[in-house]
Input
Amino acid sequence: MREVAVVGAGMTRFGKWLDRGLKDLGREAVEGALAQAAVDKHQIEAAVVGNATAGLITGQEMVRAQVILREMGFGEIPMVNTENACASSSTAFHLAWLYVASGLYDVVLALGVEKLYHEDKKRSFRAIGTAVDVEKYQDLVKAAAARGRENGGGAAEAAGRAGESRSAFMDFYASRARSHMKRYGTTAVQYAKVAVKSHGNAALNPYAQYRERYSVEDVLNAPMVVEPLTRLMCSPIGDGAAALVLCSAEKARQLTTKPVWVAASALGSGKDPVPGEPGVTTRVARRAYETAGIGPQDLDVVELHDASAPAELFEYEDLGLCAPGESGRLIDDGATSLTGRIPVNPSGGLLSKGHPIGATGCAQLVEVFWQLRGECGDRQVKGGEARVGLTQNAGGMVRDEAAAITIHVLKR
Amino acid sequence: MREVAVVGAGMTRFGKWLDRGLKDLGREAVEGALAQAAVDKHQIEAAVVGNATAGLITGQEMVRAQVILREMGFGEIPMVNTENACASSSTAFHLAWLYVASGLYDVVLALGVEKLYHEDKKRSFRAIGTAVDVEKYQDLVKAAAARGRENGGGAAEAAGRAGESRSAFMDFYASRARSHMKRYGTTAVQYAKVAVKSHGNAALNPYAQYRERYSVEDVLNAPMVVEPLTRLMCSPIGDGAAALVLCSAEKARQLTTKPVWVAASALGSGKDPVPGEPGVTTRVARRAYETAGIGPQDLDVVELHDASAPAELFEYEDLGLCAPGESGRLIDDGATSLTGRIPVNPSGGLLSKGHPIGATGCAQLVEVFWQLRGECGDRQVKGGEARVGLTQNAGGMVRDEAAAITIHVLKR
Output
């Protein structure tokens, strides 16, 4: 397989853009990526577009890539629409990488774009709820509701809240967070510190949805979503787009003196957990490290899937940034802060940069690409000397594990 | 890039399966493909799944591959969800081919699965309508409705019918059919002959949705949908699934003495038509012929995208099976019949085998694979001696051209 480089990236600010559509958001990200790559749209030989919810939210169920890109004057080239829930656009990047790595095309575009905000907010939550096995989930909700009638309504109420799927995912994260506290002595303060760090980083990132700083007290005193998760520990919904231009080594050398190389592009799915065996993130990460010929100790910067604050800690362990149970200490030590040994989510992450789900994967890759090129301004890590970065993106859930995990290792 | 073989295929009968879900349909196709390939599910290293409408029809918007395949015991492997409207699963096959051709994986599964029937049939038509630019289309319908009020309601009525999107596509095909008649003297009888041929072939195909034979008179006297298209000239909606196992040459030689090789896998998109320049099908076909090192004269069997009977004739010309304007004569001559020089749609095609849109692309490939292996029973072409086959699959429409076209050339 051939070496693949990233030579340009662009993204919109993430946020609530009720007056902007998929085409408009997509255009801004793509134009940014083409401009940075110094590539004209006619040089793009194929495009892969990730989006998760447009069917249910905007009514554009099919050929979203073509609808968005034709408007910009792209035509004729192969266009692939892909979806893997919150990992949709890292999957798009993975396929774009595959196009170049295989030798079929030399210059390929990856785009992630999502519009979650809708005047009817229920529609957004309902759409996000389809990142699970809908049929099974409905059975679960019905069963809980039936039990609730017997128990005075408590369980039915819980099922009702879970019916808003953000809470469904948050129920999962909260449950795992409570187990981690019990098993390792992790504290709510440590979870809060993740949110404090993320919001602090986002305050420095012009692309972030939420740019206010918060203290540990602010985070702990925010409204409770599901014990121990307060609202500031949960990723918000949002709209946005992010795009990257990938190309062959030969092309990269013509285009830039600062290529960033894709050292590993690994995708995996969850399976039924086997006690004592590593989970899906660990399995896919090991594969990525092996392909890239590195270990977690070699990473200079990480963007990971902090859909909730505790998730960031679990992923420190899953990615091997620390031993199991040690993630609380890692955040206490400041090792993952912007100036720490291994900065995590310098962008502000899903918690604060925002989480337009189908755009998130590409946005993580955009951030690491810019970090490795030393182009991140106030939030730049390692004084621009970072050489190796990793992104971890998770999508959906079927039974007890993420439906899709992608891990990318980028190197300059 | 490496050589890629197909070593097994499976599919459900297409039809109206109100009591069957995506999982059940998918399972039957996948189990069939694994059985024919003599491959265990644990040998599958990655899976690509095409589906177009489940979000709007069944409510399963995300991670459809994982939901369907986890149920069968697949886990851990990379799973990609892809969509390109009616070309969704030929796009899935294209990506599965890319996985193997690149050298990344040796044994990969491609699956197309779709459930269009719903108790509320309007839901099916509304979902199909999202294979166009929904935003623009709504403007178009509104404008037509406004004109209609001035013109006594006729245009509004037309817009209303067009609001059911099958008719929207059929309006397009009907308009092109009328132009072809005017320009080349093609007749409604010639269009009817396509439907007669397709239904005759489907009568021999146990996987086909409609297995009745019809005469030219039957077809012409069927209810008119849009002049000159009668109901028997239009593809129906349906449910179904089709799957194939792809692998490397080395693996293929271990698994079978009858591999079928993917000689070309080409995907392209429509662009704004330029007068005098070839359309998207011709452009993608030329690319496929060049890659495969063949021309249309080398084809022994073709499965093409006859969403309407006239479309089959247009595609004869677009694929170079005959010169522009000569397609009427080709059907008159019987050249494309089951016993003709170049049999087209021996399966019965979309018209009669059926068109569960996200399953159609893989189903075409399954048919050509089985034809090249001489496994098609009563509908077998060339006495089992066919050596080269082609599939052409079209998806969606943005402005005036198909949003996605895939052309595959298979060789034994």
